Amino acid sequence: MKKIVLILAAMAFVGTVHQAEGATRRPRTATIRIGGPRWHVGMRLAKRPDRCVVIRFRDVPYYYAAGVYYRKVGKEYEVILPEIGMQVPELPEYGVRTIETDDGIRFVYDGVIYKAVPTKKGVKYEVVGFME
After folding, report:
1. Three-state secondary structure along 13-75?
2. Rounded distance, CA 107 to CA 88, Å?
3. What are residue 62's DSSP bridge partners?
4. Residue 96's closest CA among 117, 80, 112, 84?
5. 82/128 Cα distance (integer angstroms)
6. Which of 48, 56, 57, 68 has the maximal Cβ count within 10 Å?
7. Which of 6-10, 26-30, 47-51, 83-87 is predicted with the least confidence, judged by mean pLDDT?
8. pLDDT tens-digit map of 32-69
9. How far, in Å, CA of 61 to CA of 34, rounded?
């Protein structure tokens, strides 16, 4: 038992030394979560999030805030997956990455793929697919 404890302690020490050496060679970037808890599909909220916008899609009102989509169910708001074709006025400030496809640049946030669509009121972002 003592051997196992000593081996584990040595492995932890070596890992700590390697981390410290890596930190001195090049700076590391930190990931910061902005916007509170992570939402999941099916989760229900008693009230809409702040700065929520209404999206009408196929004559049904949906709500969108910071990359998360909601629909009203009774007196609550349920987190849902967006539907292909939904358009939002903006993407979240952090966490959006770009990918290049045969059809041009696409934006990805939380597994949802968007394309920029010019409109009379400026650029909107349309849901065109999902990452697998």
Report:
1. HHHHHHHHHHHHHCCCCCCCCCCCCCCCCCCEECCCCCCCEEEEECCEEEEEECCEEEEEECC
2. 13
3. 55
4. 112
5. 10
6. 68
7. 26-30
8. 344 445 678 889 999 988 889 999 999 999 999 999 99
9. 26
Contact in structure between 127 and 112 (CB atoms under 8 Å): yes
> Where in the chain are the domains?
44-130
CB 41 within 8 A of CB 81: yes
Distance separating alpha carbons of residues 68 and 71, to the nearest angstrom: 10
Output the pTM of the full model. 0.69
Give the burial string for 30-46 (b: 16+ CB within 10 Å, else e): eeeeeeeeebeeeeeee
- In 3D space, the residue among 106, 102, 129 whose CA is nearest the CA of residue 116 turns out to be 106
Which letter does DSSP use for residue 90 in this model?
Answer: -
